[in-house]
Each structure stands twice: as structure tokens, then as C-alpha cells.
Amino acid sequence: MTLPQIPIQKIDHSIPVFRPYSTEEEVESVAEVLRSGWWGQGPKTIEFEKQFAEFTGAKMAVSLNSATAALHLALAVAGVEGGEVITTSMTFVSTNHAILYNDATPVFADIQANTLNLDPDDIERKITPKTRAIIVVHYGGYPADLDRIYDIANHHSLTVIEDAAHAAGSSYHGKPIGSIAPLTCFSFHPVKNLATGDGGMITLDNEEWDAKLRRLRWVGINKDTWIRSRDKDASQYSWEYDVAELGYKYHTNDINSAIALVQLKRLPETNARRREIAHLYDEGLRELDWIQRPIIHGDDMVSAQHNYVIRLDERDKLGAWLHEHRVATGMHYIPNHLHELYKPYATPLPVTEREWTRLLTLPLYPALTDGEVNYILDVIRHYHA
Ligand SMILES: Cc1ncc(COP(=O)(O)O)c(C=O)c1O
Fold this sequence. Notes:
Layout (H helix, E strand, L loop, with lengths): L23 H13 L6 H14 L3 E5 L2 H12 L5 E5 L5 H8 L3 E5 L10 H7 L4 E7 L8 H10 L3 E5 L7 E2 L2 E2 L6 E5 L12 E5 L2 H10 L8 H6 L23 H32 L15 E2 L5 E4 L3 H10 L25 H6 L3 E4 L7 H12 L4
Parallel strand pairs: 2-3, 2-4, 4-5, 5-8
Antiparallel strand pairs: 1-9, 6-7, 6-10, 8-9, 11-12
Helix pairs in contact: 1-9, 2-9, 3-4, 9-12
The protein binds pyridoxal-5'-phosphate.
């Protein structure tokens, strides 16, 4: 290994792991909603659902206040209660909380070391007569092995729910994520690729599920407030509705949707910048044989590149070294089966258990400059110097 001869550059600010990107356009869009006098779920949300369905090539899109809510309701309409759901442990806990919210049992399958996505062979091994569904997370935005997963699911008549919290703008063999699964769940949490004050979406093509999701997100009411006001002038607001099932308060609002519409328009550009930064890291780290890049890019796959993860033996020490130099790092994720809540569902997951101790997330967000990436690479190169 060639050691750098020159000292580390200086930096006058710290670098976070994630940061939302916005301009005056989001500010204007929110101001318009505030001035309109309709802040709740209304015309901006309807427009966002329409545009998001178009963007993903889905027939329908149902907006929610988070991906956590989306996953909860997607599993509810899929009817998993009392059954088993095959899932990954290498995810944010919301993926698996959604299974528990539905009184179903999470059954953890192992991951593939090169993508950190579910291993189809292990999914197959975990199927029992009680299996109802499979939740597939596209880790970091890189699509899971969907051809094999859908073969298995179709063979055993299981519903696939895609957790696309990282994958807004990803595509698999030319098909956008959101157009493939019967139910795909997206996140618009502030650090996600399409960022709002918090939000989520389910894309789908089943009209019955669409209607049910719209009731469940609005406490079970069969007409939303905007629809009850829309046909008439405001003084003619109709207060009539029925509640036939127990729903939740999971809907979004037009303030978030106003931000979302601007973010959606810019998403191809911000995702391209994310991929550009990943490429800079790839190039810069190539010469360092003690660091590996777990996410291997296959042909005909587009990753939304939500994060940039490296794999190495001295993860904590390199993290501390970067922190010393004002660079934040993250760890995605502590495997869920190691958390107290999930211990009753724990099962040996050798790849997950080996890999997570070696993963480190480096800063990645659209406004990260080439200069900052070069600084981070410089700090990493000096680690062994
Ligand atoms: C893989 C995954 N699933 C689900 C979620 C939950 O998303 P939200 O914060 O929108 O509820 C997250 C958010 O961090 C996530 O990373």
C-alpha cells in the first residue's frame, strides 16, 4: 500500500452522514399551502399521489405519514394476521415492527454478503405452511434478487411486500421499483432520497386494497375531509360519513405534499448526484485493499444510492478516526434479531451476524461536494499512515 506523503487537509466544518437537500422552491411551495388556508390532506396530496404513481409506473399510490405506517397497512391488507412473514434482520426496525403490529410472526432469513439483501435460498428454506408473505428490503436502494424471489413467492402463493424506503428511483431490469410488487412501501423521512417532514407511500394495482388503505389511513372513515368539501363551496361542507372498521391516523398533509412535489421533480437529478458521489468513493477506495465495497452493481440495475457502506475489519476504529476529523459515520443496521424485542424470534443468521460488525456508512447526500468527498477519502487514506 502506498502511504500518502502529504498531511491531511484542514476542514472548517463538520460533515454529517445524511442531510436533506432543498431550495427556495420547497419554501415557496409550502408558503403557497400556508396561504391557501387548507393545510391538511387535500389537493397537493392528490397531485403528489398522481405524480408518484406516474413516476413509479404504478396504477395507484396511497400516501401516508411514514413508511412505518405504509408497512403496517400493506401487511394488514395482505392479511398476514396469525401467520408468518419472512423478512430480513438487516433493516430499520419499522420493517419488522409492522409484522408485530399485525399480530404475525417475523421469520428471519439471512442476507447475501455482496448486496446485504435477502438471500432467496434462505427465504425458500424458511417457508412453512404458516407463511403468508415475504418483506423484501432493497438495502441502500440496490434492488434485491426479485426474479428469484417472485419465482419462490408465486410457487408458494405468498404475497411479496417491497420495503422501498431506500429505493425511490431504483429500477430492476428496466422496471421502476414500485411497479413490480403488489404492494411497495416508500419513505419520505427527512434523510431519505425524496425528503419531506416525514411521509410514506404505498404503490399498488389493486382497487379494493386501494379503497381499504384510504379508509384505514383515515381512522376508518369512508370519505376524506377534502372530498367532503370539494364538490361544494366551503360553506356547504358535508359532515356525513360512516366508519365500518378500525382505522388509524396515518394520513399525510398538504404541507408535506408541497415539499414532496418539488422533491419528486428533482429526484432524478439528486439520485444521479448520489450515484456520482458513490462513484467518487469507489474510485478513491479502490487502491485500499483493507476496505471492501459490499454492494456489487449488477447489469441492468439502477440504485437510488440511498447510502454508501464500506466493509472492513476495524470498523469502530476507522469510525472514531473519521469522527476525530469531523466526519460523521453511521451503521445500518444493528440486526433486528439482536434487539431485546426480537430475541424470541432470533435464529442463526451467519452472514448477517458476520457482516454487520464490519459495516460503516460514510456521508452521502446530494449537497456533499467533490471537495468534501476528497477530504473524507484523504482522512481514510491517512488512517494506516
Ligand atoms: C428500510 C426501512 N424501512 C422502513 C423505514 C421506516 O420509514 P419511516 O421513517 O418513513 O417510517 C425506514 C426508515 O428509516 C427504513 O430505512
